[in-house]
Amino acid sequence: MPYRKPQFVPRSARRLVPRTVRARATAAAGTVLGAALALASAGLLAVLHADLVASAASATRQQAETVAQLAAQGRLTPVLHTGHGTDFLQVVDARGTVLAASPNLAGRPAITPAGRTGSHTTDDVDPLLDHHRQRVTAVTGDTPAGPVTVYAGASLRAADEALDITQAGLAVAGPLLLLTGVVVTWKVTGNALRPVEAIRAEVDAITGQDLHRRVPEPGTADEIARLAATMNAMLDRLEASGRRQRQFIADASHELRSPLAVLRTQLEVADTHPDPAVRAELVHGALQDTDRLQSLATDLLLLARLDAGGADDRPRRRVDLTALVADTVLGRPPGPHRRTTDLAPGIAVDGIPLWLGRLLTNLLDNAERHAGGVVHVRLGADRARGVAVLDVEDDGPGIPAADRERVFERFTRLDDARSRDEGGSGLGLPIARDIARHHGGTLAVAPSAAGTRLTAELPLTAEQ
């Protein structure tokens, strides 16, 4: 395709282009209305002219045919009387001799219009000498004395005057209508865009410190009202997100401050204590706190990536969930609790293996932390709903119904059994739920006869 050099638009021409929506809408409406008025005026004048000329032509033809019949019957008189719609009459023989005429053409020479016999003409034929256009009809007839031509004509003076009056009226009414349309468009567009300007001004004034502010919603049910409602809903989400972020930062700071203070104390005591055995014990405790800090920092980083949608950047593929669950359960080091499984074969989902493995690991960590003696893992499929169902159940004290949603809040610990001393940071279940949601699934606490049952549902692959 050949390169086309962009055309240069002069700055003076750019200044003439309307820049605001209101001005552009008014200019467009004025242009369309002006063109419509011009076309309508031209059409009205053309129709009026055609109707007046057709009326004159019909009257003159009828009069000419009547006189031609009289001539054919031999009853032609030298003086002819015009009828309604006819201003003059004249009968001419084949030699151009005037045989009869209306009184206003008495003694005048024969009419010689440029049109053909039997046709209508509006040539500059002016037998009445009134300096107006004439409509002349010529009809040929046979008489006992030979062929004759009957000319019947009517002045178009009245038609021209009617056209002039109509044209003058349109010349006055057209600009008035155009001006009215432009003014009305300007006012209506301004009224319609006033709420938009109010919304823009309010949004421009909102900062990160006052996300509680909302844009004004007009009391209408139009598109602008829906725009304002959508903007307010977006501000609601931004405010909630900012509130969650601030709470997350505060909780993370609180969670990190205590182990850091303990770690500093242990290291300071170990540095000054003279007993090597006590010093070794303090260093060992400091290493354990360091591991907990490292795990907490890893969880915080993962949550930050999940909140930012980082998991969506990783390529997804078909994952054999049955094999993943089996390998994860069997690959865990032996613990104080017995692990049992009930896995349906051939369950596959689309996802990220690393994240799905982390989801299962967090559920197992939570179950083993609170189990009494047994942790049971069950995997099946609900083909009717197209989801894989993963249950991780323990026989521990269970979660009260009122707290089954609160356990998915970050840094939440329900009781002493879920304390820092037990190794829980309050982030395992929130991370597991975020991973399930990133895969289009859900994670919830399901009713259980004894203990706690966490159920994750993930969409099956398309071919299942």
Structural class: alpha+beta
Major sheet characteristics: 5 strands, antiparallel
**H/E element string?**
HHEEEEEHHHEHEEHEEHEE
| Strand coverage percent | 15-25%
Helix content: 40-55%
Question: What is the overall shape?
Answer: rod-shaped
As an assembly, this protein is single chain
Q: Distance N terminus to C terminus?
A: 48 Å
- How much is the average pLDDT? 82
Q: What are the segments in which pLDDT stays under 50 over at least 5 consecutive residues?
A: 416-423
| Tally of DSSP helical segments | 8
Rg for CA atoms: 49 Å
DSSP strand tally:
12
Q: In order across it, which strands form the biggest sheet? A: 2-1-5-4-3
Compact overview of the structure:
The protein has 464 residues and is an alpha+beta fold. The chain has helices spanning 11-16, 21-72, 157-205, 223-272, 276-307, 321-331, 353-370, 428-438; strands spanning 88-93, 98-101, 120-121, 134-143, 146-155, 317-320, 338-343, 348-351, 374-382, 387-394, 442-446, 452-459.
Give a description of the structure.
There is one protein chain. It is rod-shaped and about 155 Å long. 49% of the residues lie in helices and 16% in strands. A hairpin with a 4-residue loop joins strand 9 and strand 10. It is of the alpha+beta class. The longest helix has 52 residues. The chain contains eight helices and twelve strands. The strands form three sheets. The chain has a five-stranded antiparallel β-sheet with strand order 2-1-5-4-3. The two termini are 48 Å apart. About 2% of the residues have low confidence.
